[in-house]
Inverse folding.
């Protein structure tokens, strides 16, 4: 029987990207891949860590305890360079609290009069946790958030984020262009290297 890997996210956009990277880097080839849609009543972890890394670990530990399966979770978000750690680990919560991503963007721009672009970086920490396995990897990408959204691809803040050296938002790029140049790509690339070293 194959071992199981649970992709522990309730974010459909992230889930699609996890599946892309697992195939792209030929990871977990001998595993049966599962996601949270197949489980009912698992509840939700309380993400009360102070860092992306800690929150990725909290999520993975929660789902490992619930399912006994190897688990992969990420905690991610963006940080405005001139607003210490904001929104950071609260990137998803701020959008929920304020009523959507545009509201968070408006709030940020209200602090910087006359700017149309604000230097920011996206971060992703991945934790893979099993009874014996533990991997923590992170990736980040510098760029800018924009006042007005552009593009229809991707999810979350993709229409607001332009990586450095690009003139397109993640949501304006071909899907593969974002996938191969993102904070999550960099984290998965490190995960792939570490897993290769261990096997
Ligand atoms: P899970 O905890 O269930 O994985 P979540 O959406 O709550 O889902 P996070 O707490 O890690 O996940 O929040 C990260 C938020 O940052 C996410 O909701 C998006 O709004 C944003 N985000 C992360 N990666 C992104 C990406 O590649 N493109 C656009 N937005 C992203």
């Amino acid at each position: 029987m194959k071992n199981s890997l649970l992709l522990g996210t309730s974010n459909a956009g992230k889930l699609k990207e996890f599946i892309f990277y697992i195939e792209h880097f030929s990871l977990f080839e001998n595993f049966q891949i599962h996601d949270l849609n197949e489980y009912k009543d698992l509840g939700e972890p309380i993400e009360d860590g102070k860092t992306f890394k800690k929150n990725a670990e909290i999520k993975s530990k929660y789902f490992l305890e619930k399912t006994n399966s190897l688990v992969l979770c990420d905690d991610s978000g963006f940080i405005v360079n001139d607003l210490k750690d904001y929104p950071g680990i609260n990137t998803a919560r701020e959008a929920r609290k304020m009523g959507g991503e545009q509201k968070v963007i408006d709030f940020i721009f209200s602090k910087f009069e006359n700017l149309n672009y604000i230097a920011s970086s996206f971060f992703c920490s991945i934790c893979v946790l099993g009874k014996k396995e533990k991997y923590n990897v992170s990736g980040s990408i510098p760029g800018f958030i924009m006042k007005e959204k552009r593009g229809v691809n991707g999810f979350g803040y993709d229409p607001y984020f332009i990586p450095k050296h690009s003139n397109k938002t993640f949501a304006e790029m071909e899907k593969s262009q974002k996938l191969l140049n993102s904070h999550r790509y960099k984290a998965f690339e490190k995960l792939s290297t570490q897993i290769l070293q261990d096997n």
